[in-house]
Every structure is written in C-alpha cells, then in structure tokens.
Amino acid sequence: MDYYDVIIIGAGVVGCLTARALSRYRLRVLLLEKASDVGTGATKSNTAIVHAGYDPLPGTNKARFNVLGNKIYPQLCAELNVPYSRQGDYVVALSQEEMRTLEELRERGQRNGVPGLEIVSSDQVRRAEPALTPKALGALWAPTGGIVDPFLLTIAAAENSVANGVRLLLETEALGFVEEETGEREEETSERKEGRRIVGVHTNRGRRKGRKGGTFHCRWVVNCAGLHADEVMAQVGLDGFTIRPRKAEYYVFDKAKSVVETVLFPCPTPISKGILVTPTTHGNTLIGPNAHNIEDKGDRAVTAQGLAEVLRGARKLVPSLEPRDVIAVFAGLRPSGSTGDFLMEVPREVQGFVNLAGIESPGLTAAPAIAQWVVEALQDHGLEMEEKWEYNPIRPGPPRFSELSRREQATLIEEDPRYGRIVCRCEMVTEGEIVRAIHAPVPARTYDAIKRRTRCGTGRCQGGFDTPRAIKILARELGISPLEVTKKGPGSELVKRCVAM
Predict the structure, then answer these.
(1) Active site includes 51?
(2) Which of 1, 129, 164, 345 is least buried, going by the fewest C-beta atoms within 10 A?
C-alpha cells in the first residue's frame, strides 16, 4: 500500500512550492497533477509580476501573504536559479482624481508594511520611462515590485522537491477521498463535528493499463487545485465557497520592440489591477490583462473584443504600442473565490485536510509564504517535523546557450556537440538544451513542456522553424513515433498520418 505523510493535489506554483517547503523535513510527500506537466493552470497564464503589496485591503490574507512572499523572492529565485528582477513598478495617474487614488494606495501599502513607497512627478516617471503617455500627472513608485518567470519558478520548485525526496505523479487526477469515522460528535446533537478524517486519495492512476485506478493513503491532504479547488472541497463535504473563473487576455510583443523597463500599472479598479504594460524577464513586452467573469473553467480562448480592449487600455499608458509588433496572444483564467480573499484553513468539519482556495492575484507573489504557512499549520496540528540534514535548497540551473559568452559556448559544444546544433533560431535554443530538458528530474515530455523550459518556439516565428526539429528530438529521446508526440498531452498530437485515397 502506498502511504504518505502528505499528499498535495495540484502542481501549480503553490503546490510545487508547498512540496519544496515540506521536502526540508523527513516526510513522505506525494504531489499529484492531472495534467502532463507542472504549472499548466492559472500559473501558466498570468502577468508574471511579483507585487509589492499596496493593492490588497489591509487585514486580508492577500495583503499579509503578498508582502511576506515578496520578501522571500530574492533568496528563493537565487536558490532555484530562476530569472527574477526587482526593478520596481509605477502606478500611473492620468487625472486629479487618480492622483488622490495614489495617496490612498500609498497609505494602504504603508499599513500593509510595504517599504519605500513614494509619489513621484510625471517628469520623474518619464525620465525612467520615455514611452509613457504625456497625459500622466504622476505615479506611485514601489521599489520592491518585480518580475519573474512563473514557468521556470514552478518547474524549478518541482525539480528541487523531487531531488529532496518528493514523489511527483503527472497525469494523475484526484477522483475522491478515503474517509474514516473518528467517532467524535457534538454532545447535544447528532451533527458530526470533526467526525471524519481523510486518510487517502482515489486517483485515475493505472486506468489506461486496464486497472481500476490507484489509491494512495496518507495522514494529510493539501488542496492546491487552483480553479478546481472548490470541487475538491465539495468532495470532502465542504461547501459555502465557490470559484468563478475570471478570464484575462494578453498580448506578447517582439523583444526587438521592447518599450518599457519597469512595470506600468494604471490606477486599479474594484475587480482588477487594470490593463498594464510590463517587461518580461526575457526581454519581451507584455500587455494585459482585462478581467471578465465567465462560467466555463475550460474556456481559455482569446476574443477579438477582449484583445481590442487590452490594446486600448495599454495605449492609455504607452501610446506607441503597435499591433504589428505582436508575436503572440493568450488567455488565462484566475480562480476568483466567492469571499474575495485567499481561503487558507484547516477546517474543523473534516480532519487531515488543509484547504487553499481562491488563490488568485497576488497568488504568484504570495505562493512561497503560503507554502510556509502550510508547514506551520501541519506542525500546529500535530505532524512531527524533523529537519533533514541532507536537504539541499539549491537547484542548479541548466545552461542557457544564448546567454553564454563565445568562449563558454565553445567549451560547452566541445563537451557535448549537441549544443552546437541550433533548433530555435529566434531564441538560439540548442538541441543540447532540449535533450537536457527531456531528461531533467521533472522531464519535458511534450512540445509545450520543452517551450516552457527552454523558450524554444517563443520567438518571432512562434515555432515555424523549430517545431519539426523539436518533434524529431522528442520522438528519438522518448522512444516513440513522431505521430505520438503531443503539444500538451494526450489528445493534442502534433502530426497526423496522411493516408493516400
């Protein structure tokens, strides 16, 4: 029987960082993910910003864990060798009313414990950001704002977890739970209080091999299921909290047309931080998101109306943005909870269950602090935590050929000639980098997984040159037919067999 101290459901950024935090201790930890790779849900489609913490309302979980998480990021990204830049951000005011909003945001940020907040003149902002609209009257400057690569952060956290003993199972969906009665009831009523304990998770593991599935037993379950966290809650009998997806649409601009050095926010609205303009850690410019509540948790399609809205909003800050410089568009879904705040609890109604739901923005920023909260919550509820002397927080970063000097490139090619064969011209990604990603501790087994790890296919041609070569390498290294190579898992095969009629 497979038995674990902790089973984590969902390998997004929160789930992977929670697994890493628990891997410091002498525990058996299992991380389950129903997709073919880690970080493919809300983690994959966001603005990649490490928020300073002036936007959330004081006293909320969002405010507390935003600021705590922001402080952790420099050391976290250094340990995991993940691209991160703390270059600061501006909230730009375009009217006198919005100037008053900046004062409110500064006061709110100070109450939240955000350091260094300052309201600066329009001239000061334009000296830093010449492309900013001349209509700007001033801005709130937050020096602790930053940007990160959310794909690599999640992948690196998963790899470091696995290296420290966590078991990761992909394409493994949690279907239900094993419960046992504890016999504890309210004295005056028949209603059960703390009367059930979760002792295992039923999954689809093995079903495709003709078996009924796999059940894993445990002492604790941690719900990190993102958009589907409310469905996991319902499976254990917890109601009263729902998640409604909020669609966010984005444009990505060619890095040759980079227009900003820092994050430029508009003044926020009650439901969104607004349509912003930001650099990425790889040199592109990103604009978005809009924010529209929808019903379908699977609807990640961009819309003509939504993209037009994004461009209009971004041009209010940077008028020179041109659609001809766009190389990609995408949409993501935020897990917007019914309370408007992160739900973080160890519920009384059911034992052995830690609940994390509604982790929307600033969830990426808050994730490392949320992971530490899980550790403390488990300790407080009796899980013995013995630190491993052999725990290693460092995840060595793979070589990035395009970032090396000519001498370093020559040395790498001499050691492994595959680094001398360019597969992606736009991003200068080599065969050696792709092969390494395929055989990494958390292996890339699809085209999109290769893309997230190496940036293959993310440049101007969007895979037009590299895709056939990448398919060939994946097929060779995985020992499968090119017809079996997928974009993002079963059902997304990239090549179809042509049959002569």
Answers:
(1) yes
(2) 1
